[in-house]
Amino acid sequence: MPEIAPIVGQPVAYGMALAMAVLFVFAVYIGRYPLTLAHEGAHMLALVATLQPIKDWEIQDNADGATSWKTEPGWLAFVLAAFVGYAGPPLLGLGGAALIADGNAWGVLILTLVLCILALVPARKWGLAFLVPLLIVLGVGWTLIDGTPDVRAAVAVGMVWYLLLGGLVMTFLHFGKSVDSGLLAKKTLIPRFVWSVIWVVIGLVCLIKGGALLLARS
Question: Could you tell me the residue range of the domain that residue 171 belongs to?
């Protein structure tokens, strides 16, 4: 098991929180590409969990994304897949924070590596959907193999903060106008505004709880 420096309540946890906050304040457009990967990845995980075959997925030049399926999912599978897109990144971030708080920061790196490798399979080849997870696989792979314990700690907690902060930012950027909220409104008759509020609440709760786990001092 790779050695990783202590994280919870340490300067690295505070420093990476600040770094990710600066990223989303001053470079939100660039910062959205891996976030779109997490968003579309959540769609795909929901489809896999409901036994729906995935056709492919893509990331567009403007950082928007789309996931296609081979056959139209049933009502429940459709609603679940549409809902988890915006809920997925902050929930994944909260799960990563819980792993780090439990002393399993290496698990964050391993899971990131595995999920990104799986995302390469249905990606539209040679596009951003292939390039973004490939770059993450190479970066995380190098971190695990040749990174110092401090570098591994910074990468692990940085990715968690990225998901916690970025997931919330994404809900505000697309508040009331996302494709997913429109699809959910048609399928459930619940207004898209309500779905957007739910996603904001999930993002806020995950950020508060995840931040508490990462910044807590023993």
Answer: 11-213
Question: What predicted TM-score, i.e. pTM, was given to this entire model?
Answer: 0.93
Q: What is the C-alpha separation between 3 and 5, in angstroms, rounded? A: 7
CA distance 62 to 72: 27
Report d(CA 8, CA 181) in Å as an integer: 35
pLDDT in tens, 32-70: 899 999 999 999 999 999 998 888 899 988 888 899 888
In this structure, is residue 206 part of a structural domain? Answer: yes
Is 40:59 a contact under the CB 8 Å cutoff? Answer: yes
Pinpoint the alpha helices (H) of the chain.
11-26, 28-49, 75-101, 105-120, 128-146, 149-173, 179-188, 192-215
Asked if residue 144 lies in contact with residue 195, where contact means CB atoms within 8 angstroms, the answer is no
For residue 3, being part of any structural domain is answered with no
Number of domains in the chain: 1
